[in-house]
Amino acid sequence: MIAFMRISKGPEEFIPLDNAALIYPPTIARFNSNVFRLSFDVDIAVIPERLLKALNNIMVRFPYYKVSLHNGFFWYYLTQHEKPLEVYPDRSYPCAYFNRHRSANGYLFKVMYREDRIAVEYFHALTDGTGGLIFLKSLVAEYLRLSGIEVGDDPQVFKINTPINEEESADSFQKFFFPIKSVMESDVRAFHVTALSADLTDRTNAITAMVSVSDMKLIASEFQATITEYLTAELLDAYQRIQQQRVSSSKRYKPIRISVPVNIRRVFDSKSMRNFTLFVVVGIDPRLGAYSFTEIIEQVKYQLRNGVNTKSLSRQISRNVAGGRNVLVRYAPNFLKRPFMKILSDRYGDRLYSSVISNLGNVSLPSGMAEHVTQGNFFLSPSKALKISMGVMGIHSSLSINISSNLKTDTVVEREFLTALVNRGIAVEIASNRTDSMVAR
Amino acid sequence: MAYCVKCGVKLEPGTISCPLCKTEVRASEEIIGKSTKTLFGSSHHDHREEQPLVDMRRKGFIELILALATIAIIILAITGWAIGPEHPFSPWFSIGCVFIGVGFILAPLVLPSRYVLLSSTYVLLTLAILLFIDAQIGGLSWSLYTTASLVLYWLIGVFPWVIKHKRLVLGIVVDVVSIGLYLFLLDIFDGPAVTWFFPVALPIYVVTLICAMIFGLRMRRGMTVSEIVMGLILIACIAVGVGDIFYLRFIDHPDFVSWSLELWIIAGLLALYLIAVATIKKVRLFFTNKIDK
Questions:
Q1: Domains A2-157 and A197-437 belong to one CATH topology
Q2: Residue B121: which domain range?
Q3: CATH 3.30.559.30 for domain A197-437
């Protein structure tokens, strides 16, 4: 029945998931929380009651986030959710497993606080990084307003009394779908840092590196690259070194690929507040020989720039949406689709790339907010296959590189990546939630 | 604030070892600083989060098996209902088999990978399915044999791991008694009274045990591979030969031995060889080709 509603856009109480979100609910499991986290550190005290008031205020402007997730006969679906909103004290680790019924009173996002921080963790089925950032900025702006601070205008800060654009709640993937024939592509498994299940933890370990944006720009400009391109190249190079260290024979080398999520709202001129991100996979193949850093960055530049264009992205959208529109897939009951998605998601997803790096860019802050927000962080949950994920966000003049990992003790990727930055003369300041490196708090 | 001497990164205040390379920070407390604003709070304040117990792929397989089993059960139930009670086909038998089959497949996916746990589960499931099938065919008959065999397998193949080799003697005693008991039960299942156990099975078992004990004691002093192989062949020959002798007594046959005479000759030659190797140094060196120490 839900499947019919998906097509006919039936009663409003049934809200279909957007195309990119379909994969997240069935694949949630131990080591795969499918959660991302955005946070702002502020220089004023965060009072939970005031934060809750701010949250209740802004939810009027974000009705499409006032939803809960349900397991339908054919598909997962969303419905309007009216339970009271809550704010929660922050945890010692990011991106925890999200129980859709109980973790946040049935909501798919969780607002958390500590004395100087406002954080929101989103289950990825709700929205992507850009949608999440707009929500967080609007929440923090409202909190500052309630604290008596005047906040200026910003396109990414939705004020309570502004009209809601219909496009915000639309699934833009369906809008930009072209009915062309395309097939799911699989490829050779990429190189991964190997670990036994006993070496993994479901308490995400995080390392945040703070670097100067101007330093990064300077280094990236030496290679005529953007910061994203430069960081991706450094990560590929780090994985290349790790493979050389850990794999004894070059005959057993595997390709190294990094998945780079791309916000395609600007490409397609979309205002969607739901998921509207695609992945460009960039990589090198060390089976053909070792790559110099210059070769890697040239590859990254070529592949990223070649991947981000309307035609190439449309092809991806068509492939993804066509999968969901296939009659067999559409009318297969969810209890059969769900296990297949779990079993096959690695084959067409995580096993094809070694890690993921998502750069939200330099976040602009309106006046009032800019003076009080001191730092921003963006964490992506790791998965059992990837083990390492990287989220990047710039606030003011500093860039925070947030590396989340579910490896209990192994920090080889973080070490290789960050020491490479240090070796290029970039001052790197790190902080971690790994308990073995701190004095008693 | 300190720097890691190995990685070159600046560490947040209060860090006593580098999170990247675990190198200890060797600096004064003043330089290390105090932990004031940390990346995340202390784990003592964490509210308890539920965690799924299994990873994605395993969860997928579990869900798939359960989904397919559910479909199979529904189809069987509908079929049973549609053809009515007068038809000889009973869906309950097939549904029971589906349940036990699901148990077989799910056991390694759900249970921790421990030999004792998995093998005990499989023994129980096999027992259940065999008793179930036998009961469906019409009363318990052949399943008694299989039950006894499975229990014997568990006692020999699993029980020593339950006691974790801590009580070797207990393990051996349990094995010896359980094999004897198994033979006794087979005799009982065979007919209304005990017939062949005492005159045939027990003597063979006792002789084989004595041979095995001698073999075991000899092995503790060290044996070559050829000696082990020959020793095992010798035990087999003696056991079968003894079986022949006691069986002839059991059926009141006039001959002392029949077809096992050749086996006794082979056993004698093997025994001679093993005694010679064990007692005469020159023979041992000749066969083992070892330099005498």
A1: yes
A2: 111-195
A3: yes
CB contact under 8 Å between B41 and A415, yes or no, is no
State the CATH class of domain A2-157.
Answer: alpha beta
Q: Which residue of B has its CA nearest to A28?
A: B56
Q: Is residue B279 part of a domain?
A: yes
Report if residue B163 sits inside a domain.
yes
Does residue B246 fall inside a structural domain?
Answer: yes
Query: Which residue's structure tokens are 């190249």?
Result: A233
Do A346 and B19 lie within an 8 Å CB cutoff?
Answer: no
Do B140 and B181 belong to one domain? yes
* Two structure tokens written together for A254: 């595997």
CA–CA min distance A209, chain B (Å): 9
Q: d(Cα A424, Cα A216) in Å, to the nearest integer?
A: 10
Give chain B positions within 8 Å (CB) of A203: 43
Per-residue pLDDT of chain A (441 residues; tens, 9 = 90+): 343 334 344 445 788 898 889 999 999 988 999 999 999 999 999 999 999 999 999 999 999 999 999 999 999 999 999 999 999 999 999 999 988 888 899 999 999 999 999 999 999 999 999 999 999 999 999 999 999 999 999 999 999 888 998 889 888 888 877 777 666 666 789 999 998 888 999 889 999 999 999 999 999 999 999 999 999 999 999 999 999 999 989 999 999 999 999 998 888 888 999 999 888 999 999 999 999 999 999 999 999 998 888 888 888 888 888 877 788 888 889 999 999 888 888 778 888 999 999 999 999 999 999 999 999 999 999 999 999 999 999 998 999 999 999 999 999 999 999 999 999 999 999 999 887 666 544
> CA A389, CA A380: separation in Å to the nearest integer?
6
Same domain, yes or no, for B95 and B135? no
Closest residue on chain B to A204 (Cα): B40
Q: Determine how β-strand A256-263 pairs with β-strand A355-363.
A: parallel
Closest CA to A38 of A422, A423, A379: A379
Of A130, A198, A224, nearest in space to A168 by CA: A130
- Could you give the angle at which helices B261-279 and B281-288 cross, rounded to 10 degrees? 100
Nearest to A432 among B1, B39, B61 (CB): B39
Q: Where are the domains of chain A?
A: 2-157, 197-437
The answer to whether the CB atoms of B61 and A339 lie below 8 A apart is yes
Can you give the C-alpha Rg of chain A in angstroms? 21
Residues of B in contact with A30 (CB under 8 A): 51-56, 59
Residue in chain B nearest A441 by alpha carbon:
B35
Beta bridge partners of A29: A32
